[in-house]
Amino acid sequence: MDIGIVELSRLQFAMTAMYHFLFVPLTLGLSILVAIMETVYVMTRRPIWRQMTKFWGTLFGINFVLGVATGITMEFQFGMNWSYYSHYVGDIFGAPLAIEGLMAFFLEATFVGLFFFGWDKLSRVQHLVVAWLVALGSNLSALWILIANGWMQNPVGAQFNPMTMRMEMTDFYEVLFNEVAQAKFVHTVSAGYVTASVFVIGVSAWYLLKGQHVALARRSITVGAAFGLASAFSVVLLGDESGYSATHSQKMKLAAIEAMWNTEPAPAPFTAFGFPDQEARRTHYAVHIPFLMGLIGTRSLTTDIPGINQLVNQAEGRIRSGLIAYEALMTVREQRDATPPEVMKTFETHSRDLGFAFLLKKYIDNPLQASQEQIRMAANDTVPEVWPLFWAFRIMAVLGFGFIATMAYFFYRASFRGMRYPRWALWVAVVMIPAPWIAAEMGWFVAEFGRQPWTVDGILPTAMSASSLSVTELALTLFGFIAFYTVLFIIEMGLMLKYIRKGPYIDVAETDDWLRARQEVLAPVARTAPTAIPAE
């Protein structure tokens, strides 16, 4: 396989995936926030909560449609750009994607229509059920997609069949309850909840700075801050869980994130700052926090975390073991049912390392003819580029703690300071709107770039996974996707800004009816309440 074709295919899929993920987090979070707001409306019957539900629901709908448009393309790319990958592991990877389409997406798409067009057709409780089903569908979609992605990170519940030359599922429940997939799911959806909370707070802060839609903005900040604070804590705690699972499922990724070149005495320190030098295999000007990495990665003070150099040596040993499996596989492929039992036994003994032998196909068509130098080169290929992973993880982590501080501050002001906010805090909230998207993109970069050189970790190298396309075809489609997705992004931003400037629709008749029905209760409050609650 031409490496240029592989790299262009990777670039194209990375571009479409990261464009798509601009829409996903807000969809996940807004679906829950809108359902919460409608729940309050049904419980209190206060018109302001219906206005909030409709306003934020409109922004959710715009984002949902653009997310669907960008997400469909990705599934087609598995067949177009990654045909050998689809052939080799399609039995496992395709199952959760099929379930996502048949169960979660249809649920979500069906009830989205009822949500927007059922306000005057359904009762309050019926419409509330619809809102929660939309939220459930959105989050179930994320679950099944992340189960598929989690299997690529930690391929459990499957084995290679030498007769079909493909990976086949052996235990669906092991795939479903894969620890990496479950940790990724809760971490990703929590990040989506933080994204929506920051978005709601930022837009509401803009209204308060302009003196517009004050009642809606104050209540929206209260909901966003409470929901966002819980979600921000969840992101950090579940990110820690992802680090723990990587200790025994993706050791090289963890070592690269930490720029841990050699195994450190337990408990290993955490490198807070430094400049990784991959050529020299050292980190310049490193600032360490003692014991922290050992506690995060192993939950103990006595367990070592292997370094990059030691993992490269292990990879070289696994390549040599994989070559034994590869040689046996060639015999099985030639003799089929007449394969001697001792050959099958040899293959089964070394089959878990077969993927490491495939790393040699980057350098030579027949791995059995590889030189010692090529084996060493293939072992070194198991190390991803360290400095981008090192810094992307730290940007994500710093932003994560920043979200906790921001949410805690707004929650405090909403709960104990009468929903009054200093102007500087409101400006911070507005400026912070893009931050959760930056953190989310950094997180996906760490997850996917850190898995290289594997498409399926330890099973199928990326260099073997791509389709036999030409550079011209890939370049043209790459620029086409960039142009098309950029247009979609501009449309998304234009529609979002249009409806934010327009503000909520206020049903005057409904509000007047609610006020008349509660006039006796509200009259004493109105005589004693201040005319306005200004921002500080």
Explain what this protein looks like in three dimensions.
Helices cover 73% and strands 5% of the residues. The longest helix is centred in the middle third of the chain and has 36 residues. Helix 2 packs antiparallel against helix 3 and helix 11 runs antiparallel to helix 12. It has 536 residues and is mainly α. A hairpin with a 4-residue loop joins strand 3 and strand 4.
List the defining traits of the structure above.
cell membrane, disordered C terminus, 536 residues, two-stranded antiparallel sheet
**Order of secondary-structure elements:** HHHHHEEHHHHEEHHHHHHHHEEHHHH
Radius of gyration: 27 Å
State the distance separating the first and last CA atoms. Answer: 63 Å
| SSE-based structural type | mainly alpha
SS element count, helices: 21
Shape annotation: globular
User: What's the average pLDDT?
Assistant: 87
Q: TL;DR?
A:
The chain crosses the membrane at residues 20-43, 55-72, 92-117, 129-147, 185-209, 221-239, 391-412, 424-447, 474-495. The chain has 536 residues and is mainly alpha-helical.
Set out the fold topology.
Elements: H1 3-20, H2 24-44, H3 47-80, H4 83-117, H5 124-153, E1 158-161, E2 166-169, H6 172-176, H7 179-210, H8 214-249, H9 251-258, E3 270-277, E4 282-289, H10 292-298, H11 308-335, H12 341-350, H13 354-358, H14 372-380, H15 386-416, H16 423-431, H17 435-449, E5 454-456, E6 460-461, H18 462-465, H19 471-502, H20 508-517, H21 519-528
Antiparallel strand pairs: 1-2, 3-4, 5-6
